[in-house]
Amino acid sequence: MTNASIEGRQILVVDDEPLIATHVADMLSKAGAKVQVAHTATEAQQALSATHFDAAVLDVHLADERSYELADALLSQGTPFLFLSGYLTIRAGYQHLPFIPKPFSPEKVLSAVEDLIAQGKSKAS
Fold first, then answer.
1. Does pTM top 0.90 for this prediction?
2. Which of 57, 60, 73, 105 has the fewest beta carbons closer than 10 A?
3. Domain count of the chain?
């Protein structure tokens, strides 16, 4: 199954839990996206320096680190993203950003990423 709004789009998935990262990546890939997975903020920063992403999905808590610096990098690049986390508390200054709590439904994540892509397109116009 492909979806024209995300088909061929570059999406970064950042989650320290391999099962969740793989689940989200597979779902987005089946919808036609080109997905890159990172399990740490360092891996994600390396990916950001090498590839332009159309959207990103970030876990807030990555083992012993948080993804807020990564969120700042995405914001400065104008890359839309959402937080996907089991922790319901988001640091002050980030609460206005899209957030999906774990556990999540695949449909909700897919729909939210489609919204991010549409948001990115409208900013580019």
1. yes
2. 105
3. 1
- Residue 88: CB atoms within 10 Å: 9
What residue ranges in 15-111 does DSSP mark as E strands?
Answer: 34-38, 55-58, 61-62, 65-66, 81-85, 99-101
**Is residue 39 domain-resident?**
yes
Domain that holds residue 67: 10-124
* Structural domain contains residue 104: yes
Residue 5 lies in a domain: no
Look at strands 65-66 and 61-62 and give their pairing: antiparallel
Whether 4 is in a domain gets the answer no
Q: What is the pLDDT of residues 41-89, one digit of tens each?
A: 999 999 999 999 999 999 999 988 999 999 999 999 999 999 999 988 8
- Reduced to 3 states (helix: H, G, I; strand: E, B; else coil), residue 97 is coil
- Give Cα 14 distance to the centre of its chain: 7
Helix axes 106-124, 18-30, angle to 10 degrees: 60
Contact (Cβ atoms closer than 8 angstroms) between residue 65 and residue 81? no
